[in-house]
Design goal:
211 residues, alpha+beta, globular, disordered N terminus
Length: 211
């Protein structure tokens, strides 16, 4: 899926949850790898906070050993310019997976998926996530037609420090809470329709692969 934007330079970047990665060339590669890892770690921490109220009980062995990698989109599903970082399975002890993707234009997408015991748990985690949004983006959340019953939300704006454009999308699919964070240069935001197109692809991926 091509995600070019007519009025901006380059392609999109994201946060499923919280953070950003920088992809450079040559000697910058190591720094970019470190940033990508930091981005995924930040996303994992935020996801854990949002889901903590519903996942405080020890996870069952079956859930902990789940192959959550199949829930993720591939970078090639988004755009050929994006490269995926290493996925983090069950970050901070929370059932789920986090992965960041970035491109040479310093645009990043972070996907974070938390798997609860049931759909009610995912919905409670979604409510908790709403309270965390002001820490990630200065835009007010709006309804988004994605997820179970179109229960998603989207918030666009800038990071609290104004250093980058941010678009956050949250939704649930079954017992999973998904968060996608798009981050890019302050004057190169992802279009809401582009973010929702990616979110709907991720929604379908979860629906087809979460048992």
């Amino acid at each position: 899926m091509k995600i070019a934007q007519a009025k901006t330079v380059g392609l999109i970047g994201v946060a499923l949850l919280m953070g950003s990665a920088v992809v450079g060339c040559g000697s910058d590669d190591k720094e970019s790898s470190s940033s990508s890892s930091s981005s995924s770690s930040s996303a994992a921490e935020t996801t854990s906070a949002a889901a903590s109220e519903t996942t405080s009980a020890p996870a069952s062995p079956a859930a902990a050993d789940g192959d959550y990698s199949k829930l993720l989109l591939k970078a090639s599903d988004i755009d050929p310019s994006f490269t995926a970082g290493e996925a983090q399975v069950n970050p901070n002890g929370i059932n789920g997976i986090v992965q960041s993707m970035s491109n040479p234009q310093n645009q990043t997408i972070v996907f974070a998926i938390v798997v609860s015991e049931d759909a009610d748990g995912a919905l409670k985690a979604l409510e908790s996530a709403k309270a965390e949004l002001p820490k990630e983006v200065d835009g007010a959340p709006q309804p988004a037609d994605v997820g179970d019953g179109g229960n998603g939300l989207i918030a666009t704006g800038k990071s609290p420090d104004g250093s980058k454009a941010i678009t956050e999308v949250y939704f649930t699919q079954g017992k999973a809470l998904a968060n996608i964070e798009f981050s890019s240069a302050p004057n190169d935001p992802v279009l809401p329709e582009t973010a929702l197109a990616v979110a709907k692809m991720q929604d379908t991926q979860i629906k087809n692969n979460l048992s």
